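Shipment paperwork, digital attachment
Item: protein structure file
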Amino acid sequence: VNLEELARKTEGYTGADIEAVCREAAMLALREKLEARPIEMKYFLKALEIIPPSLTKEDIGRYERLAKELKRAVI
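Attachment content:
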């Protein structure tokens, strides 16, 4: 599994989203082969096609602006 590629492809995903992707990858592997270990990269890539990020770019922008405002308020 190429973790750097997965990190790039999951930008904008929350921790819960990434957990869902991992679970889906495991289920895809099991459906194909009952004793699929280790879970191959192809299953993660397919899971990313199925599981979208729960945050939009607008959501992320909003959180980033809020973080900046809060930093200014604290300083």
